[in-house]
Design brief:
This protein has about 180 residues and is an alpha+beta fold. The chain is about 35% helix and about 35% strand. The strands form two sheets. It has a five-stranded antiparallel beta sheet with strand order 1-2-3-4-5, with helices on both faces. Helix 1 crosses helix 2.
Length: about 180
């Protein structure tokens, strides 16, 4: 489970592995039509979708495929959403993705950018991959802005799980150069 951000924090957030105790709050994500505004997927009912989501995260943990972390707001101890590093197959290539999903009441507060940067830094500090991606639906401008704030740029357009997406990417050497430049100021 090397890709999990266990015991990691940002100024406002704490990350930990997902827990079934979060289920009651996270099912709201699947009940909210805004959560799937930009993504076409076969869905059943919110409870079943949430159960399947948790099963997939636990499978990822067992198979060392990364996985989402619960994002907890420190000041309230409330679940904000999930974010993490995921091994993904994109165009038959194994890639490490910076992923994030927030409950609607926690959007537009900078939490996605904060957790995305933490995931990026954690991955590069631990030399997990030469580059990182984020898979973002073409019309999902809020997530595109998060990727851009994470110093990612569109690398290519492709089809992923029957959705038209942009693959945003950042290379480790570019991240190192930015870090060195920001530390020399």
């Amino acid at each position: 489970m090397k890709f999990l951000l266990t015991h990691q924090e940002t100024p406002r957030l704490r990350l930990r592995p997902v827990s079934r105790n979060d289920f009651g709050q996270w099912v709201d994500f699947f009940a909210d039509p805004e959560s799937f505004k930009y993504w076409d997927a076969v869905r059943s009912d919110p409870v079943s979708d949430c159960e399947n989501w948790y099963a997939r995260q636990l499978e990822r943990y067992r198979n060392d495929e990364g996985g989402m972390n619960a994002i907890i707001e420190k000041s309230t101890d409330e679940l904000v959403g999930h974010g993490g590093l995921l091994i993904q197959q994109v165009d038959e290539i194994s890639e490490l993705e910076v992923a994030y999903s927030l409950l609607s009441r926690h959007r537009n507060k900078g939490f996605a950018t904060e957790v995305a940067r933490k995931c990026r830094d954690f991955a590069f500090e631990n030399d997990f991959a030469p580059s990182l991606i984020s898979i973002i639906s073409l019309n999902n401008s809020p997530s595109s802005r998060v990727a851009e704030k994470n110093n990612m740029a569109v690398d290519k357009h492709t089809i992923y799980h029957e959705n038209d997406v942009n693959i945003y990417r950042i290379y480790r050497e570019d991240w190192i150069a930015r870090e060195l430049n920001s530390n020399s100021r």
